[in-house]
Design goal:
Layout: H1 3-10, H2 16-28, H3 30-43, H4 58-72, H5 78-86, H6 99-148, H7 167-173, E1 196-199, E2 202-203, E3 209-210, E4 226-230, E5 250-254, E6 259-262, E7 293-294
Antiparallel strand pairs: 1-4, 1-7, 2-3, 4-5, 5-6
Helix pairs in contact: 1-2, 1-3, 2-3
């Protein structure tokens, strides 16, 4: 085991299998367990469930305050300044304006910046993992739905389920919405009501809308077709409206059950844009591999 494993375990950022392996290692190694306990205690002030958020511009205001203290201190009289030159060991050049203090403050802010950056990355990774687990839970319900509907997944654009957000309602009505699944990204603030995007389906040769299915004629690429995802990240959103709860990307659930975190929209089959069809519209795809995932209110 490495220190990275211990840190990941302490911050609950590991995959279940990795976490189980570390837990078994700690159970057999008291010294390592003691190290992880100390690490968890040291990191506890940074946990996200304390409801404490730093004030806006805390770092810049602190630097400004320190600068004002250093500048406002009365300067040393000229005679004292001359005496200080005769004593090279003296680091004071004016009141409390000391180079050692400046260096110490600079190092302090550097360490604080690194610590906050690490905590922010850890929180981001935790949010992404929570969202991925939520989408995997959704896939369990989709599997049950396909088992009872001849391999088909829910289809929207019908009278009963007209819009993308009614996709989950179809699962619920069929008794296949899995326990513990919430149709919103855990990374988004609860008040934002940021849900997931779902497949709008594609149009057949006779212009009928058809939903996705688990397999067809042995087509293995079916597993690579996205069926749900976060709302698109802000820089890849096809239109105005709510965007992904993650900072720079989005999680995508594929028909085969794989979940991928991506920073672009072109993660469908052969680089397909998963939020627009081949005509650039938020509407049903023009063929089976032309995936389009719609947000609340989107129709095929």
């Amino acid at each position: 085991m490495t220190h990275d494993d211990y840190i990941g375990y302490a911050l609950n950022l590991l995959e279940p299998s990795e976490r189980d392996a570390v837990a078994a290692h700690l159970a057999a190694n008291p010294d390592a367990a003691a190290l992880v306990n100390r690490l968890q205690a040291a990191l506890s002030p940074f946990e996200t469930d304390h409801g404490i958020n730093p004030p806006a511009n805390l770092a810049s205001r602190t630097v400004a305050r320190l600068a004002s203290i250093l500048v406002d201190e009365p300067t040393v009289p000229s005679a004292a300044l001359v005496a200080s030159v005769d004593r090279p060991e003296t680091k004071q050049v004016g009141g409390r304006f000391r180079f050692d203090l400046i260096v110490a403050v600079g190092i302090g802010f550097l360490v604080l910046g690194l610590a906050l950056s690490f905590v922010n990355r850890a929180r981001t990774a935790s949010d992404v993992l929570a969202c991925q687990n939520n989408l995997r839970t959704l896939h369990a319900g989709l599997t049950g739905y396909a088992d009872t509907h001849a391999g088909r997944f829910p289809q929207v654009g019908t009278e009963a389920y007209p819009t993308a957000d009614s996709f989950v309602q179809a699962l619920t009505d069929s008794g296949q919405c899995p326990p513990g699944f919430h149709a919103n990204c855990p990374a988004a603030p609860a008040a934002a009501h940021v849900s997931y995007a779902y497949a709008l389906g594609h149009r057949t040769s006779n212009n009928m809308v058809q939903g996705q299915w688990r397999s067809a004629d042995g087509a293995s690429e079916n597993d690579l077709i996205p069926i749900s995802a976060d709302y698109p990240a802000a820089d890849v959103a096809p239109a105005g409206g709510l965007t992904s709860g993650h900072q720079a990307g989005h999680n995508v659930l594929y028909v085969g059950g794989h979940v991928r975190y991506a920073t672009v929209a072109t993660v469908g089959v052969n680089g397909d844009d998963i939020y627009r069809n081949h005509f650039g519209a938020v509407a049903a795809g023009i063929n089976r591999t032309d995936t389009v995932l719609g947000r609340n209110g989107d129709i095929p």
